Amino acid sequence: MNYAIILASGAGERTGLNVPKQFVLIENKSVLERSIEAFENHSCIDKIILVINPLFTDLVHEILAKNKYSKINKILTGGKTRQISSYIGVNAVEEQDAKVLIHDAARPFVSAKIINDCLKALDKNNAVNVAIETSDTIIEVNENNIIKKVPDRKRLRRCQTPQCFDINVIKKAHELAKKDGIDNITDDCGLILKYNLSDIYVVEGSVDNIKITYPIDLEIAKLILKKESN
Ligand code: CTP
Ligand code: MG
Predict the structure, then answer these.
(1) Atom of ligand 1 nearest to the CA of 86
(2) N or C: which end of the chain has fewer CB within 10 A?
(3) Sequence spans of domains, the chain
(4) Is 81 in the pocket of ligand 1 (CB under 6 A)?
(5) Which listed ligand is nearest to 13 at the C-alpha?
(6) 79-128, pLDDT tens digit by residue?
């Protein structure tokens, strides 16, 4: 059984709008609908778990009523950090032998190819991440803004989602973090790595698989759609 867990419980503070970014329309369709459809329309995804912001349940139910998706399995309210929202989603999976693809609702352009590549990689790996090369050099600074390191760019990647796991492995990672009182890790693979639970295989993402974060990303999103329709 392949689950998509879509994390849509954030507030979207950095976009600075009066509604969280997952509800913003890009050419007549919201970011959330586009993210759901990527998985709804993929033949290898069986069920979708939605983790939503409790302040916007009515809006989500309106969106769901309008679209009549067939794979929505559970609608849960998230927590105060992404990690907690992910924990809530992961724990809602009952099957023992499930695979889960945990996706940011704020990435509306995840492609069928990325989902395919993730599922294929999950046949051989218990943890899979999606990432792309970095065009900028990345530096590490200390607390005084002094450069500590300039890591070799060839080895650096920018992480996207979905991040994909054997359900038992990611459940264990979240349980261990909970026990340790850690609740603010921004990426599920970070938990796997922290507790050394599995190698994490990396599949190639896409420059189109952006995370809507700042207002400019909504403009970029329109351009991505325009390019796709050409
Ligand atoms: N997310 C979530 N629960 C949270 C925080 C984030 O489900 N408590 C989700 C967001 O809805 C988003 C994804 O995790 O789809 C990535 O998080 P981010 O880009 O940081 O979104 P927000 O937290 O909404 O934005 P900001 O940090 O600017 O407030
Ligand atoms: Mg956030």
Answers:
(1) 7
(2) C
(3) 2-229
(4) yes
(5) 1
(6) 999 999 999 999 999 999 999 999 999 999 999 999 999 999 999 999 99
Q: How far is the CA of 230 from the centre of ligand 1 (A)?
A: 31
Cis status, amide bond into 162, omega within 30 of 0: yes
Write the pLDDT tens digit of every residue in 119-158.
999 999 999 999 999 999 999 999 999 999 999 999 999 9
Does the beta carbon of 82 lie inside 6 Å of ligand 1? yes
Token pair 């600075």 is found at 16
pTM: 0.98
Q: Is 53 in the pocket of ligand 1 (CB under 6 A)?
A: no
Q: Cis before residue 215, ω within 30 degrees of 0?
A: no
Distances in whole angstroms, Cα of residue 59 to Cα of each of 24, 39, 168: 12, 20, 32
**If you measure from the C-alpha of residue 7 to the centroid of ligand 1, how many angstroms do you get, rounded to a whole number?**
7
Element (H, E) at 25: strand 25-26
- 177 SS3 class: helix
Token pair 């067939």: residue: 70
CATH class of 2-229: alpha beta
Q: Are 217 and 210 in contact (CB under 8 A)?
A: yes
- Residue 215: other Cβ atoms inside 10 A: 13
